[in-house]
Amino acid sequence: MTPDRKPVRKAVLPVAGLGTRMLPATKAVPKEMLPLLDKPMIQYAVEECHASGIEEVIFVTGPGKSAIEAHFTADPALEALLKQRGRHKDADAIRLLSRIVRVSFARQEKPLGLGHAVLCAKSLVGREPFVVLLPDVFLLGTRPATAHLIEAYAESAGSVVAVESVPPERISQCGIVAVEEDSPRGHLFRV
Ligand code: UTP
Asked: Rounded to whole angstroms, how far apart are CA atoms 8 and 56?
């Protein structure tokens, strides 16, 4: 246990990629705004942040991503219209979108890669620990993966990353880590 760990309060969500592997669906609609059941993918990530104790989400956006900002910005005119029509539940749902957590925006002018996108959030993050979520990755579980990661961070001496096992035929498509075989602490391995 490292007692001097600062709490993780901020999350960086890089959403400035081009999403070329999902064309033509992503030509005009950001990949992160594609719906999964009744809400866009990015909303699951923001809700996961909230459920994991995160207080501020920093989106790293790029050109053509204004829909993401619009999704999490209050829309009093739409709320009023829904209320006028007696759709109070829908109006509440729309209002809550801008209140899940505090959001701020950093800009990545050119899609220079994931690492560069995270770097673009540097001044908004400041000197404190933060978590990075990729909103196009879904991890199902009874507890959010982000909460697990934050817990693992509190127990470890360095940065932590969530990984999954892949079969040999997928290795060439993935970033691969080598881990020490013996884990003294359950699912926490030294990379
Ligand atoms: P991906 O590796 O899925 O890249 O990014 P991509 O550009 O979105 O999609 P392809 O490869 O063209 O199909 C993982 C996450 O990192 C963000 C993406 O928006 C996505 O959330 N990203 C990627 C950036 O913010 N900036 C980049 O330059 C690249």
From this structure: 10
| Closest C-alpha residue for ligand 1 atom 23 | 17
Tell me how far the alpha carbon of residue 154 is from its chain's centroid. Answer: 20
The amino acid sitting at 61 is: T
What's the token pair of residue 13? Answer: 């969500």
CB-based contacts of 66, cutoff 8 Å, min separation 6: none
Residues with CB under 6 A from ligand 1: 14-21, 31, 60, 108, 111-114, 117, 134-136
Residues pairing with 130 in the sheet: 10
Of the candidates 51, 81, 46, 42, the residue with the CA atom closest to the CA atom of residue 144: 51
Mean pLDDT by 10 residues, the chain (191 residues): 77 93 92 93 95 96 90 93 95 91 94 96 96 89 92 87 91 89 77 88
What is the distance between the alpha carbons of residues 152 and 6, in angstroms, rounded to a whole number? 13
Q: Give the number of other Cβ atoms within 10 Å of residue 65's Cβ.
A: 22
128 contacts 147 by C-beta, under 8 angstroms: no
